[in-house]
Write the structure tokens for this entry.
Amino acid sequence: MASGVKVEEVVKLKYDDIKKKKSYRYLVFYIKDEKMITVEKVGARDCNYNDFLGDLTGAGPDDCRYGVYDFEYTHQCQGTSEASKKEKLFLMSWCPDSAKIKKKMLYSSSFDALKKCLVGVQKYIQATDESEASAESIEEQLRKTDRV
């Protein structure tokens, strides 16, 4: 079900800056006036995952957000002695259980529009509480997509 919410052009441009140029570590988006997904915060390349979570959840327990994060971790393939550095982009929909129903419905029905615009995201994650958004949980989900 589509919500009719559009994605602002600057969202695509900033996303390309992360994907191609590695200019930023993360982006946080919100739905403005129930009509347009737009960029709310941009995280510098030296920001960490806790900064991202702070900006993602910073609007309070009653508000939803989307976020893209360029996650880095080390991966060791079987049969090799050295670990390689991996980077994966994931898109998270943050809708806490305490958010109003109307807002949660708007964000969940608009998630597909954002997914279509952000080509190249390796993982889509929906989080409703801090345990689902924790760095450990995210890394575990991203590692499942690695080749062994």
In short: The longest helix spans residues 101-117. The chain has four helices and six strands.
